[in-house]
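Dear support,

We are seeing what looks like truncated structure output for some complexes. This example has two components. We would appreciate it if you could run it in full and send us the complete token output so we can diff it against ours.
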Amino acid sequence: MTTDELIIATCLKAGKIMVENGSEISRVDDTMIRIAQNAGVVQANTYVTITGVMMSIQGRNATQIASVTKRTIDLEKVSQVNQLSREFADQRIDLPTLHARLGQLDQASRSFPLWLQLVGAALVSGPLMIMFRQETVNTWPTVVIGTLGYLVFYLLNRYLKIKFLSELVAALLIGFSAEWAYQVGWGTNINDIIIGSLMPLVPGVPLTNAVRDILAGNFVSGPARAVEALISAAALGFGIAVVITIF
Amino acid sequence: MGVIGQLILAYLAVLGFGLIINIPRHALNVAGWIGTITWASYLIMQAADGGVVLGSFIGSVGIGVLSNLAAHYKKMPSIIFNIPSLVSFVPGSQAYQMVRNFALGKYDQAVGFMLQVVVITGAIALGFLVAELLNQLIAFCLQQWQKLRSS
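Here is the complete output from our reference environment:
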């Protein structure tokens, strides 16, 4: 591999990892340009969207495209790429090492274990229900149903790989469980239970990134992310609406 | 439901959302504190009859500025701090009421809740914009100060 090719491959890999794991576009752009400059390229051009990353070196015969087909949320990886880029800028690692480390990072999964994510879901659903509704009677049903809903979403998303469908099923399950908890007298207010239990599934990352991308002037990726957030919200809303209509 | 209780709950909720979206371990605590501080400012706005919209605006400005400072301090991207701390400001209750009233066919109430959701989301987005402005101002002031100190 020539140096030009290696520079482009490294930048594309960094950009691809960042887009895949939920970074905003301007940061990806910035990181890629910075890696290229620290590798000795005077002028590099990047074009980053949420479905693909392109890069060329001005005046030389080198342009490459990396497509982004899967998108998950793993901000740890975004932070790691950032860290590696900083180390490269400080000349603590050289370009081949950076490329190799990015490859390792892409393979490795340093996610929190499932049980900790479930604890997270419990922590989101219970406290937010109390904060929004100012009551504590329905805390336990909310915590249990919220955790269950997130577990179903996680498992379906892992094996089905269609995010919107997983959200729809999770919302249906949350709705029916809340209705059940109300029927057997465990909870007193079905609305509060549903509001709290849905909170772990809120599309926070696409929504925040949509706003940030649009504010930064990325009018291709910002609205695309907004649509993603909107479809997620619609899937959740539709699941709940079905339950409300039935009962 | 005391104020202290609300703040503890805000911290826990931000921590929980941080676990779900997998932010780095040593960023969890800082993100939790940002969530707590901004929720306190929201509560102060509520106590001063500022309403939900103004409270959300102030909260999101606070989140934008504090996350940027935390990002500089911890040397991490600022989205790691501002996505989890925003979770308590999501208009989840209003969004649910909107869906519920649409499903029940009460369109006049549903539209009312929809407007609330739109206005609150807009306030949060506007808050980010103002925070971006403040961040650039802070960076500029720091730069000038360092220039003065070194000269």
